[in-house]
Structures are given as structure tokens and as C-alpha cells.
Amino acid sequence: MRNRKGERPIEATAPRPFSIEQYNSRTDRRTSQNGPLAFSAFVFAVVFAAVVAGGFAISGRFDVWAVVAAFALACLAVMTIHIAMQWEKVVVLRFGRFNRTKGPGLYFTIPFIEQTALKADQRIMVTGFGAEETLTSDLVPINVDAVLFWMVWDAEKACLEVENYYNSVSLAAQTALRDAIGRASVSEVAIRRNQLDQELQEIIEERTSSWGITVLSVEIRDIVIPQELQEVMSAEAQAEREKNARMVLAEVEKDISAMLVDAAHVYEENDVALRLRTMHLLYESVKGSGGTVVIPSAYSEGFSDAAFNHMTDALKAKG
């Protein structure tokens, strides 16, 4: 397309498809740091102001050493006094070894001796993962997108047993998805979605339980099959339905033919039944047409007086 001034044409770009990696990268998981940072700044300001004010009250003037001492004490206070948000568990190490877990709320550490190793978010986490161009057991490449719901139940294990528990869970889920797809055919993947969800949950749970992480659920979002294969599968499904319809029709025809054979035997053994059937068919024809019906000679014989008398005698004889 060309703009109004006749300048260089502007090419329209197609929208980029949704990407699991983009979703995971743009997810903001740093919201829990705003509160602790504001609290640390507040502690620093309060301690610094208190020490400077105390030095001024003692010496009667602002001294450089008082400012330096205030800055040092404020830094020590920031390294000592901390807060953890309601959804956080903090892992504290002493001399590099695990000492305790704290939080939520206010907690204290010894400067230079104890360190905060990890702040584990114990809310339900949502991780998107997928498998692109993954071959099924019948060698069909498909794309599958899924969502994993999980949470950290043991902050100590999440800190000590794995380097980065969030990325580890994502990679473990992706690997489990690829393995599950490779063991199933394309039709099984498309039809057995609920079974695939349950299988993935059990496999990921087995791998992440040692990291202090529990898997709540796994949900398959989308399964993309190549367009050529979709047409073939649609034709196969239509052929299968047509086959079933023909089999049902054949069964019905078989039952009808068997009933007609039985009726023929009855009519062969009883002329009265045959004539009554003839009269019934003629009555249905007249009733359906609502007018005059031309009766062939073979049918009219059933309405003659001789035929009626013969029919009466036959009924009396059988009675």
C-alpha cells in the first residue's frame, strides 16, 4: 500500500504469533521487592537521621565523623532489619550453611555472618510451556502449548536442591511434554487430552517434588496439527462414519428381509391372510391419496362376492 504523498510504499506486517517464551519473560515477578526496598530505605533514613541528631545534641555541631558514623550505622541497620511479604518464605544462611527460614513479617539477620539466600514466592505460579515441531510415535510433527500451575511448599529445598527453581520447573515441564508426545500417536494426542494432562502432572510432580515444589494441575491449551494432515484425518473420519452408516443400513435391510420371508410363509399357508393384507394395502392407498384409485384386476378379485364367501367359509372352518 502507498501513503497519501506518493512516497515509498509501506508494507503491512503480519502479527507475530503468541510465544510461550515471550509470556514467561514478560511476566513481572519482582512486585514483592517494592515493599522491602521501601522499608529498607525507611530504616536507613531513620537511623541516619537519629545518629546525626544524637551527634549534634552531644557536640552541638555537625561533625564529619558523626555523618560517617551515621552512614555506617544506617547500613548495618539495613543489613540487620528486614521484612518479608505475606506470600514469602526467606531462607537464611549462616557462614554459608542453612540456618533457618523466616517470614512473613519482620525478621533480623546478623550482618556479615548471615545472608538471605532466597525469598521463595509461595503463591500459585503459572508457567506457560510448549513443544514445537515435536514428532509423535507415528512421525507427525505437531505443536502443543500448555500451562502449568504449581507452588513452592518447602523454601529450604527450593533454595538448596536446585539453582533456579522457576526455570527448572519450566524446562522439566517442556521435557515431560516432549516425552509424552513422542510416546503417543497424533490421534491419541488430539483425543486423549485429559489423559495427557494427568500424565504430565504425574511426571512433572515426580521430578519437582524433591525441589520442594508441588504441581497443582497441567492444562493443554492448544494442539496444532499440519494442515495437510488435518484434511487427511477429516477424510478418514468421514469415511469411517459412512462405513458405520452403511453397516447399520445393511443390518436394517437384513432384519427387514427376514421379516418379509416370515410374512411370505404366513401368506403362503393362509390365503385369507393374503387377501386381508391386499385389502389393507388398498385401503392405505385410498386413504393416502384421498381420491379414486384404479384397482388392477388381480386386486379386484379380493373384493368379489365369491371371494368374500370363500373368505367367510375359510374363517368358519378355522374357527
From TrEMBL:
The cross-references to CDD domains, in alphabetical order and at most eight, read: SPFH_eoslipins_u3
> By its UniProt entry, which Gene3D superfamilies does this protein fall under?
6.10.250.2090, Band 7 domain
Q: Which residues cross the membrane?
A: 37-58, 64-85
Q: What are the protein's UniProt keywords?
A: Membrane, Transmembrane, Transmembrane helix
Quote the Pfam families the UniProt record gives.
Answer: Band_7
Q: Which InterPro entries match?
A: Band-7_stomatin-like (IPR043202), Band_7 (IPR001107), Band_7/SPFH_dom_sf (IPR036013), Stomatin_HflK_fam (IPR001972)
Q: Does the keyword Cytoplasm apply?
A: no
A single GO cellular-component term from the record reads: side of membrane
Domain Band, by residue range, is: 79-237
What SUPFAM superfamilies does the record point to? Band 7/SPFH domain
What family name appears in the similarity comment? Belongs to the band 7/mec-2 family.
Identification of the protein by name = Band 7 domain-containing protein
> Top-down, what is the taxonomic lineage of the species of origin?
Bacteria, Bacillati, Actinomycetota, Coriobacteriia, Eggerthellales
